[in-house]
Amino acid sequence: MAIEVRKVAIESVTDASGLAALIDDGVFEADRVLAVIGKTEGNGGVNDYTRILADRAFREVLAAKGTRTIEEVGEVPLVWSGGTDGVISPHAVVFAEVDAPAGDPAESRLAVGIAMSEVILPEDIGRPAMVEKVAAGVLEAMKTAGIDDPADVHYVQTKTPLLTLSTIEEAKSRGQEVFTEETGLSMDVSNGTTALGIAVALGECEMPAAEQICKDMSLYSSVASCSSGVELDRAQIVVVGNVRGAGGRYRAGHSVMKDALDADGVWEAIADAGIDLPERPRSSDLDGRLVGVFCKCEADPTGRVRGRRNIMLDDSDVHWHRQIKSCVGGVVAAVTGDPAVFVSVAAWHQGPSGGGPVIAIADLGPAQ
Q1: What is the dihedral of CA 8, 9, 11, 15, to 10 degrees?
Q2: Of 7, 133, 159, 325, which is the active-site residue?
Q3: Each residue of 38-56: pLDDT tens digit?
Q4: Phi, psi at residue 25, to the nearest 5°?
Q5: pTM of the predicted model, to two decimals?
């Protein structure tokens, strides 16, 4: 078996025709879809229901065109990040198993593993319990991908619950306290705590103390991309890496953007995925070999980028989440020449402060 990776456009909020076409054309079978990671066009906030609409549309296609029940399809990780600010275009990247000859044991090709964590309680968010549950799930996903060495992991995409008024009240009814009662802030907290779970699983940091969670930003994962929403109560975990002899056409690589303007960080991830580039590359040098780019971003807490002041964190009209997403989306799209890039905000513990991880998946042709 090998992994097939395809990007499809989302032309309306409930459009899953791109996925249906790939199945109808025999690119892969509905029952062998492992995961979907995509951007939807809502506000990216707590009440962004475009994520739920896209989730339903894609799951209905998987159920209608395969043999899995809707309950079984419900176990497939579909990770939706809301908010396509600026030039970012709504899209989804589909990962599926396909039959292919084994590759050269000396060559690495893409492998994907999935897992669902234990239930994450409202009081777990922002606390060591969530770190531990996510770390256990990451190790399980690595095992299903056949990845033994954490150095071969280049991308961990997660979707975790955030706090809502109803879940906060439910926790209180059991005598529990939550990390924060600000539902919007809980998105950052959920993402950051999850990233630490990934970092612990991959040996990027030791198990953090409770007081370090969402506080000590020197602790981070360089491969974590964490999103959160209201549509689930566990961590959906997708581990993407490379395995020698896996076969298939694709390979992953990663780097970090040191700040919001770090186009070189994007190019470094593309090169790490195996695409040969000239010294000063252009998007035309990619020649259709770049399948997808996934990155996280945040407004620098200093309020400056490369020494210049900005007012994102002081702006009362447009939340900084939307501003930084639009900014980084433009930078990444300028590199790739494709506005269908996965750019997600709320990047605590995901890459260096003010920057974030960037992951590339390349089509290198069949393994020899």
Answers
A1: 20
A2: 159
A3: 999 999 888 899 999 999 9
A4: -80, 0
A5: 0.94
Which single residue is written with the structure tokens 């059991």?
174
Q: How far is CA 312 from CA 256, 318, 322, 348, 364, in A?
A: 22, 8, 9, 17, 39
Whose CA is closest to 252, among 265, 263, 261, 239?
Answer: 239
Q: Is 227 part of the annotated catalytic residue set?
A: yes
pLDDT digits (tens, 9 = 90+) for 258-306: 999 999 999 999 999 999 999 999 999 999 999 999 999 999 999 999 9
Q: How far apart are the first and last CA of the chain?
A: 15
Q: What is the DSSP string of 81-138?
A: EE---TT---EEEEEEEE------TTSEEEEEEEEEEEE--GGGTTSHHHHHHHHHHH
243: its two tokens:
């395995």
Dihedral over Cα of 165, 170, 171, 177: its sign: positive
What's 209's DSSP letter? Answer: P
Tell me the per-residue pLDDT of 86-124, one tens digit each, with 9 for 90 and over.
999 999 999 999 998 877 888 899 999 999 999 999 999
pLDDT, residue 96, reads: 98
Q: Is the separation of the CB atoms in 122 and 179 below 8 Å? A: no
Where are any strands of DSSP class E within the chain?
Answer: 2-9, 33-40, 78-82, 91-98, 108-119, 153-161, 224-229, 234-244, 250-257, 290-296, 304-305, 308-309, 342-344, 356-363
Would you state the structure tokens that stand for residue 311, as one six-digit string?
């007012």
- Is 7 a catalytic site residue? no
CA distance 307 to 95: 40
* pLDDT tier at 367, thresholds 50, 70, 90: low
Q: Which residue type does 56 have?
A: R
Measure Cα distances from 256 to 51, 88, 151, 167, 174 in Å: 26, 19, 15, 34, 41
- Supply the angle between the helices 50-65 and 17-24 in degrees, to the nearest 10: 20
Distances (CA, A) of 104 to 71, 145, 244: 38, 18, 7
Residue tagged active-site, from 186, 221, 227, 255:
227
CA nearest to 187, candidates 161, 156, 225: 161
